[in-house]
Write a structure and sequence with these properties.
The protein is α/β, with parallel strands linked by helices. About 35% of the residues lie in helices and about 25% in strands. Helix 4 packs across helix 5. The protein is globular, with a radius of gyration of 21 Å. It has an eight-stranded mixed beta sheet with strand order 6-7-8-3-9-10-12-11, with helices on both faces. The protein has a four-stranded antiparallel beta sheet with strand order 2-1-4-5.
Length: about 325
């Protein structure tokens, strides 16, 4: 059945390059291609999962999307409006509609502020509420994320990692956003807590009609929460499609390798499955390979792979892959 929902987020040819200088007086300039010509969309109310190895550009994509980094090139459209070149003043109304949950719950909360101050700061900044009304709003948010009212007067160091991440989620929800970027929100948490946070995010999405970009390493967890999955390698989007389609019919050799590393609960199936071990290291984004960025580690590499960079092509409805095998 075709999804008729409108696109909330559209990313077109996004590039995020960082400069590195060396030599006398910093005259030698090199470009770190953290995100290189990435395009995707996220429909209203859905979750797009973004996966890949450390350093592949997932988090940089999320931070560029919310304009914590100014994009080098490309377009970012929010509900059809091009916000790519908006300055901080123009972005203020969009800050209310787009929020982010950060990876490290220990570093993302100010240790000198109480939970009341941390959550209430955005409520006051955006003119949502003040005084007693603000406090009631904070209590309501704490309740939504499974914390108690008396937690509002405490400081971040008095909480566990899972509780801190709940505070981070409450802070993101404080301004009634439409879109939340979850930047590896469970990677720093205990496994038993991860499932609780994922279930809470799903419940909040259903209750509030939220749209998520969910960034993570764990493909099995991403499959659980995502409607669609994008796979990144060395700053490039190499495959994107429906969650079940990508997991059951992976098209890119890199996606196949990632899925082969996901633990299986059935010991018999785990013994029968062939593990794909990638050879070599991830190339430097300072000097990426010519042609296909994955060719130096791909067992199916052909001559054309070193000459031409593959573009995303649709191989089945809604399933795209950047690979010369197709």
């Amino acid at each position: 059945m075709k999804d008729t929902r409108e696109n909330l987020i559209e990313v077109q040819g996004l590039k995020q390059y960082f400069t590195k200088t060396s030599g006398l007086l910093g005259r030698n300039v090199q470009y770190i291609k953290a995100v290189d010509n990435v395009s995707f969309y996220i429909k209203k109310g859905e979750t797009l999962g973004l996966v890949g190895e450390s350093g592949c550009g997932k988090s940089t994509t999320g931070r560029s999307l919310i304009k914590l980094y100014e994009p080098t090139a490309g377009k970012i459209l929010f509900n059809g409006e091009d916000i790519t070149n908006y300055n901080s003043k123009q972005m203020l109304p969009f800050r209310k509609r787009m929020q982010m949950v950060f990876q490290d719950p220990y570093a993302s909360l100010d240790s000198r502020m109480t939970i009341n101050e941390i959550i209430g700061e955005a409520i006051v900044t955006h003119g949502i509420a003040t005084g007693k009304e603000k406090d009631e709003r904070i209590f309501e948010l704490l309740d939504k994320v499974g914390l108690m009212r008396d937690h509002a007067s405490r400081y971040p160091h008095e909480f566990s990692g899972g509780q801190r991440q709940r505070v981070g989620i409450a802070r993101a929800l404080a301004v009634n956003p439409e879109f939340i970027i979850c930047d590896e929100p469970i990677s720093a948490l205990d496994v038993s807590i991860q499932a609780q946070v994922i279930n809470m995010l799903e419940d909040l999405q259903n209750d509030m009609g939220l749209t998520y970009l969910f960034i993570a390493h764990d493909l099995s967890m991403v499959k659980h929460i995502s409607n669609r999955i994008g796979v990144m390698y060395l700053g490039n989007l190499v495959e994107i499609g429906g969650s079940d389609e990508v997991n059951n019919h992976p098209a890119h050799p890199y996606t196949e390798a990632l899925l082969s590393a996901v633990p299986l609960p059935d010991p018999r199936l785990a013994r029968e499955r062939k593990r794909i071990v990638l050879q070599g290291d991830v190339p430097s984004p300072l000097n990426p390979p010519s042609g296909c960025p994955f060719r130096t580690r791909c067992s199916k590499c052909m001559k054309v792979c070193s000459e031409v960079k593959p573009e995303l092509k649709e191989i089945t409805p809604g399933h795209q892959v950047a690979c010369h095998l197709y």
